[in-house]
Write a structure and sequence with these properties.
Strand order of the largest sheet of chain A: 6-7-8-3-9-10
Structural class of chain A: alpha/beta
Bound molecules: adenosine-5'-triphosphate, magnesium ion
Number of strands of chain A: 10
Number of strands of chain B: 0
Strand content of chain A: 15-25%
Order of helices and strands of chain B: HHHHHHHHHHH
Mean pLDDT of chain A: 88
Radius of gyration of chain B: 18 Å
Number of helices of chain B: 11
Number of domains of chain A: 2
Largest sheet of chain A: 6 strands, mixed
Oligomer: heterodimer
Distance between the termini of chain B: 28 Å
Largest interface: A-B, 28 and 28 residues
């Protein structure tokens, strides 16, 4: 798994969870977007964070990636406290935001080069890593084109390539397949499974696609109004709801309380749709 | 430390690639100083309404116009940063382990590049208008240093404003409100002695005054730096370091 680290350090790291969240809370004015979450994610897991619009998924990810400070509580990511050792956390994680966000005025190659430099990938290794990432995401042909000429699916793959370049221990993906066609979606699934298997990356992803959650995630938490409403393996969650329940029914069951907050954040989602369209 | 400079250069490199790919902005930014020098400067130097000592008015204002065009183009760095925030690019920079100050210095370096392009444009115009320019290598080298400092100061200042106001609309408003007083409450187009006392005391707290003052000593034959070039550079360096410290703290707020 962690070839480059001394065995002792690797052993110490695996003794702990990849993500250990305790009492994590974030408020925006009166709104409790994340409400005292406790949750551990084991190393090597693909973890699905589900929940209706506005449930608090993106906010949780922003806190875990050190972009947003928590109002209360804390978390350890890859063994480091997000508040006390944020730089150490950043060195060990990768992040793909919910909005498409590669720099359109640069080529795919230049976007990757920037990431490699900022993540201090050794100079001698940069070219090989970039070539590897491009090939892994099937972007060799497009590497020299400006990203503003890419399709949404290509941008998503480029972002994944950027996020894996420095071999992070934990990868945070906020709706990695939003707006992708079924084929592109399957390609991304396959690549993610591959990253998880071959590089031992722990992946935390959010999605509204229950098929995706079931297909990819070994462990799932359903957020509802900032709290964890359910947690477990997909199979286990289904059996809680009913013997023949589908994931859609599981989702509906745990996030169906009559709460207007569900619709609060659709503007964000619509903006994504527009950028992808 | 080495990694710090690698990060700065990585950011500056990206900005340069964008600038070279689409130089329209560089070109359009050259038009305003041409107007100031060719129209405003020519007219006022014939009128002889402003006492600028031994040097003619056009020669007096040329360094002021360079400083002004550096100020005006650096101040819109904030807009670019807000734009990058809206595109999610800032989020990506901020989750990287790169130090916050290197991200800021990288931006400042690319503002420096623009500033130097503007300096080149203004030297060309000045020569065409027969302004007595100092071409000694030492003076040119010092001018490059001063422009580098000045552009870095105003680009970083603009970045801080962007992190505070956060939206493009508000920035446009605030940008206008700030740049005009900065320009007029300085020695850019008239000497400090001609100002009423209250304005002069404001001007002495304006970094643009020291920027212009140093350029006046370095660009023009017979041009006088009132404070001394060493003092000017010292002031600009201190202001830059203070702004850098503030910007490194406020930049992460842009995505909150
Ligand atoms: N910067 C902010 N200021 C104020 N409120 C915010 C801010 N960011 C998020 N919120 C609010 O916090 C709540 C949680 O938002 P969040 O983006 O985490 O939801 P989400 O689960 O990611 O939703 P979606 O599925 O639509 O992406 C929402 O009600 C949202 O309006
Ligand atoms: Mg979200």
């Amino acid at each position: 798994m962690s070839q480059s680290e001394p065995a002792a350090a690797a052993a110490a790291a695996t003794a702990e969870a990849a993500i250990a969240i305790t009492g994590l809370t974030r408020s925006f004015g009166d709104l409790l977007a994340v409400d005292h979450i406790d949750c551990d994610v084991a190393y090597g897991e693909i973890f699905g964070l589900l929940g209706a619009n506005g449930a608090g998924k993106s906010t949780t990810i922003k806190i875990l990636t050190t972009l947003l400070p928590a109002s209360a509580g804390t978390a350890r990511v890859a063994g480091f406290d997000i508040r006390l050792a944020s730089a150490a956390v950043r060195r060990r994680i990768g992040y793909v935001p919910q909005l498409l966000s590669a720099d359109g005025a640069l080529t795919g190659y230049e976007n990757l080069l920037l990431s490699a430099r900022l993540y201090a990938v050794a100079h001698a290794e940069q070219a090989a890593r970039i070539a590897d990432a491009l090939q892994f995401m099937g972007l060799e042909q497009a590497a020299r084109r400006l990203v503003k000429t890419y399709s949404g699916g290509m941008i998503r793959r480029l972002e994944l390539a950027q996020a894996m370049l420095h071999r992070p221990k934990v990868l945070f993906l906020d709706e990695p397949t939003i707006g992708l066609d079924p084929l592109a979606r399957h390609t991304v699934w396959e690549r993610l499974a591959h990253l998880n298997r071959d590089y031992g990356m722990t992946i935390l992803l959010t999605t509204h696609d229950m098929e995706e959650a079931e297909h990819l995630c070994g462990d799932i938490a359903i957020l509802h109004a900032g709290r964890i409403a359910a947690r477990g393996r997909p199979q286990a969650l289904k059996s809680v709801v009913s013997p023949q329940a589908t994931m859609d029914e599981v989702f509906a069951h745990f996030s169906s309380a009559s709460d207007s907050g569900r619709w609060r954040d659709t503007a964000d989602t619509r903006r994504v749709a527009r950028r992808l369209g | 430390m080495l990694q710090f400079w690698r990060e700065c250069l990585a950011i500056a490199d990206v900005e340069l690639r964008k600038l070279v790919r689409d130089p329209t902005e560089l070109v359009s930014r050259a038009i305003q100083p041409i107007l100031w020098l060719v129209v405003f400067g020519q007219v006022l130097s014939h009128a002889r309404g402003i006492d600028t000592g031994k040097v003619g008015y056009l020669a007096f204002m040329t360094p002021g116009i360079l400083a002004q065009s550096v100020l005006f183009s650096a101040i819109f760095y904030g807009i670019a940063v807000i734009w990058e925030r809206d595109l999610g690019i800032v989020h990506k920079l901020l989750v990287s382990p790169a130090s916050r100050s290197s991200l800021i210095v990288g931006k400042a370096l690319s503002a420096d590049f623009r500033g130097l392009v503007q300096a080149a444009v203004i030297y060309v115009i000045a020569v065409a208008l027969r302004v007595p320019i100092r071409f000694e290598p030492a003076a040119m080298a010092a001018m490059v240093l001063v422009v580098t400092l000045g552009a870095a100061v105003f680009a970083t200042f603009s970045l801080i404003i962007a992190c505070i106001v956060k939206t493009r609309e508000r920035f446009m408003g605030v940008g206008q409100v700030l740049t005009m007083p900065l320009f007029f409450a300085s020695n850019a187009i008239y000497p400090l002695q001609l100002m009423p006392a209250w304005l002069r005391s404001i001007a002495t707290f304006n970094p643009l005054t020291y920027f212009v003052d140093a350029l006046r000593g370095l660009m023009i034959q017979g041009g006088q730096s009132v404070y001394g070039i060493g003092w000017d550079c010292g002031v600009l360096s201190l202001v830059f370091l203070a702004l850098l410290a503030i910007a490194a703290r406020t930049y992460p707020h842009l995505v909150r």
